[in-house]
Each structure stands twice: as C-alpha cells, then as structure tokens.
C-alpha cells in the first residue's frame, strides 16, 4: 500500500505512522541506527509490504493487469488500494478522512527527531500539500499515477494507470476489500 495504507495500519499512533512512512527511506539494516520506536515503524512498514506482496488475491490481480502495466503492476496496486481506502475510509475507520488527516498532521513534530533532512522535507510536503485529501477523487488517482510514474528511473506505463484502474475497477475493488479484511486481521488483530 502507499502512504495512506501505511498510516492506517499504524493503528492511530502518529509517531509510529511517521516511522512507518520512513520505511521507504531506509534500506537494509540502516534502520538499526535509529531509536527503537523508529525501528518498530520501519519493521511494520516491511511487514505491510511483505503481506501485500504475498497475498494470494493481490498476486492474482497483478497477473491480470500486468499486460497493461508491465514492470509497474505491483506499484499500481499500491496506488489503487490507497485510492480505494480513501474512498471507503469510513468503512474502515471511525473518523472521517479529512478529520483523521487533520488530526494526524497536527500531531507531527519532527523538530527533535533524528530523521534525515530528505525525509523531514517529504513529511513537510505531505502536510503542506495535503496530498492524501485528494486520494478519493478521480483527479487524485490520476495525479498519483502521474507523480509516481515520473519518479521512476525507467520508462513505464504507470502514467496510464488511472485508465487501467477503470478497466479493471470491479476486480480491483473486490481484491481490495478481501485484502483489507485479511490485513486488518493479520496486522491489527481486527476480524
């Protein structure tokens, strides 16, 4: 999953959520150089990534869309699932998404945190631009696909990811809800 999914699976703990997002910024065992609460977040990030990468329905869905999105189908799934989580937020969380994001952002203070400056800059942009508030919309899905596509170091079809989503919307949505049921049980103990 992408940013919103990682925050969601941090179980309403803003400090853990930030450390979870840091998982994309630290490779290998470098996370062991950080305090225990950051290590916990990075390990949660990796656990979430491992679970989605090995979920049987997600693997099947990747095979379905791979011809349309070669090399980037798993990345597209992460984007699609964040889009669907945002659209269906109140089915999975007690707060409305705008309230949740506002509360989350208000609790972030990185001034005395040992994170590297590039990560702090990323978090500041996430807050300032309020990217995740656009996730539930068609425009938000389009922007996510365009943005991630442009950051990849190789030529890719993710810039067309929004059209692939609408082609396979029923299959993706069904897979998303099954994944969320399983992930909530596995990652958060919710049945």
Helical/strand content category: mainly alpha
Percent of residues in β-strands = under 5%
Low-confidence stretches: none
Tally of DSSP helical segments: 11
Q: The biggest beta sheet, please?
A: none
Distance between the termini: 20 Å
Choose one word for the global shape. globular
The Cα radius of gyration reads 16 Å
One letter per element, helices H and strands E, the order comes to: HHHHHHHHHHH
Instruction: Report helical residue fraction.
Output: 55-70%
Number of strands: 0
Q: What is the residue-mean pLDDT, rounded to a whole number? A: 96
Please provide a written account of the structure.
The chain has 191 residues and is mainly α. It has eleven helices and no strands. Helix 2 packs across helix 3 and helix 5 packs antiparallel against helix 9. The protein is globular. The model has no long low-confidence stretch (mean pLDDT 96).
């Amino acid at each position: 999953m992408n940013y919103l999914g990682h925050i969601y699976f941090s179980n309403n703990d803003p400090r853990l959520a930030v450390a979870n997002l840091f998982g994309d910024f630290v490779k290998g065992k470098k996370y062991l150089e950080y305090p225990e609460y950051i290590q916990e977040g990075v390990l949660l990030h990796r656990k979430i990534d491992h679970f989605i990468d090995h979920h049987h329905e997600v693997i099947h869905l990747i095979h379905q869309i791979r011809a349309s999105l070669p090399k980037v189908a798993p990345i597209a799934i992460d984007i699609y699932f964040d889009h669907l989580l945002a659209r269906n937020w109140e089915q999975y969380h007690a707060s409305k998404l705008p309230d949740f994001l506002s509360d989350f952002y208000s609790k972030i203070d990185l001034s005395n945190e040992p994170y590297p400056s590039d990560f702090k800059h990323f978090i500041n942009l996430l807050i300032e631009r309020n990217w995740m508030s656009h996730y539930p919309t068609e425009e938000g899905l389009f922007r996510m696909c365009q943005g991630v596509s442009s950051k990849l170091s190789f030529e890719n079809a993710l810039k067309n990811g929004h059209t692939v989503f609408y082609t396979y919307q029923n299959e993706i949505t069904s897979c998303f809800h099954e994944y969320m049921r399983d992930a909530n049980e596995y990652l958060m103990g919710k049945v």
